[in-house]
């Protein structure tokens, strides 16, 4: 069995025990398979576990939450059905604290605050629209944000989503503050990044271990890509 390339240097593995596999997902990689047929993170993780533990059959990998394909950062995978069930419950009940870093082209005003929108997803176009007032079937979506400072020619914004809606951070920063995320042409930024990622990174995930109940915090370093270099001074 060939060693999976994704894990060869183990930079992506932030933590592993009997129940959890915490990954720093590269931008451009799906978390779970879709209609494209591209190999997702979950399949790569299964391959890694099969290789590491010399499993003759399939390894269990459960996906409790997702990051958009062009987004990098912390993803928690479950290695047991017990862990998956409890992780699903924690994410559903908003008992997981998530911190994202985003780069914007201009400084948000005000430089910190709370955003509330009602989000409506268009599954055909795979886009989400944000409304400032209650709207039809729109789902109420909340986040807190704070500008950490300037990062080169960009601004580094820390975002703590309170709810977990599709494209929530991307559309709320664009609609609510007029500051689309760098590279996110879907939500208003003028030009894509060379690697077609967007400058949104799941920086930190804080949760209670689903089995041991221990309080845990996982931090993912930003990608080694030019547009993130200046943000590293904020570690």
Automatic annotation (TrEMBL):
Residues 19-174 form the Pseudouridine synthase RsuA/RluA-like domain. InterPro entries: PsdUridine_synth_cat_dom_sf, PsdUridine_synth_RsuA/RluA, RluA_PseudoU_synthase. Keywords: Isomerase. Coiled coil: none annotated. It comes from the Bacteria. This is RluA family pseudouridine synthase. Belongs to the pseudouridine synthase RluA family. It comes from Hymenobacter fodinae. It holds the Pfam family PseudoU_synth_2.
